[in-house]
């Protein structure tokens, strides 16, 4: 009798601990959402014409309550840029999170696996030489070139990873090799291109949100909204993947098939994001690690947490790009790299294989 009572007490204690843990994680996600809303309002308020937070909130809730000039500036000019920062940040962070999950490597991200570099090369072909990879859509030649090359890079990495004897570590090394290959090709393009074309290529590779428009935003948002449920459907399996392929297989997961599907989905997310705003590094590396520290590995919380962290980082980066040098908008890729490089070095120096 006493043994049953002790067992029941222990089970009750464990259930209470689990409920407290779930509530804590839900509160963290709610806090990130509030911080994201505040960052969005600050981003909208800053610019050549500055507005107070109260005026921004009024324009968001009831647009007719503000002047026509304020309404045009906030809704037609700044809103697509500010929202694109959220969508791109969330997309890159989710892509990095799932790459780290399926490859069991803390350094995996669209940037370090060469997908961003492939997209940059595709865009550079259009900017420097007018190469059109998708002739049917000339109006969107730069983002489409970037998208095609990013997806080809992802499929090349996967095709090479299917060879016999290739390990997860080899896949990461293949991605790093892709980065060097595309960097060399980018240098070759800049060597042969005109001075004006080189300037355009360099500016694009810095990453910029300033050319965001409502149509581009809807496309990027549509891809994000379409991919999220597909990843969430595999939430349990992705959580099991963190235990290793052998353990995941024992639980009924098919690691190779899951790895391919997730790689295609996250490559799509990363390709669309980079295609519209240029190369933005380290969001896919930093965002997931912050989310992991806050809410753990459970995909029910890790997936939305990664999205919120990535969106918040890029939104704050957009704010910093406006305030560091008043009157000048620094390319957002420079801001994220300055933040991400120290974090990347920290991961490399503190990396312990036992923890991954």
Write up what this structure looks like.
Helix content is 77%, strand content 0%. It has a single domain (81-355), classed as ABC transporter involved in vitamin B12 uptake, BtuC, CATH 1.10.3470. Helix 1 crosses helix 2 and helix 5 (141-161) packs antiparallel against helix 11 (255-277). The protein is mainly alpha-helical. The protein has 14 helices and no strands. The longest helix has 44 residues, at 2-45. The chain has helices spanning 2-45, 53-61, 68-103, 115-129, 141-161, 168-192, 195-206, 214-233, 235-241, 245-250, 255-277, 283-295, 299-323, 332-350. The model has no long low-confidence stretch (mean pLDDT 86). It is globular, with a radius of gyration of 22 Å.
Brief rundown of the structure:
This protein is mainly alpha-helical and 356 residues long.
Helix-strand blueprint:
Blueprint: H1 2-45, H2 53-61, H3 68-103, H4 115-129, H5 141-161, H6 168-192, H7 195-206, H8 214-233, H9 235-241, H10 245-250, H11 255-277, H12 283-295, H13 299-323, H14 332-350
Helix pairs in contact: 1-2, 1-3, 1-13, 3-8, 3-11, 3-12, 3-13, 4-5, 4-6, 4-7, 4-11, 5-6, 5-11, 8-11, 12-13
**Which bin fits the share of residues in helices?**
over 70%
The biggest beta sheet reads: none
Under CATH at level 1, the class stands as Mainly Alpha
Mean pLDDT over the residues:
86
Query: What best-fitting shape do the alpha-carbon axes yield?
Result: globular
Cα gyration radius (Å): 22 Å
CATH architecture: Orthogonal Bundle
The CATH superfamily is known as: ABC transporter involved in vitamin B12 uptake, BtuC
The tally of strands reads: 0
Low-confidence stretches: none
Q: Return the string of H and E elements.
A: HHHHHHHHHHHHHH
Q: How many DSSP helices?
A: 14
CATH topology name: ABC transporter involved in vitamin B12 uptake, BtuC
Q: How many structural domains?
A: 1
Distance between the termini: 42 Å
Structural class: mainly alpha
**How much of the residues is beta strand, in percent?**
under 5%
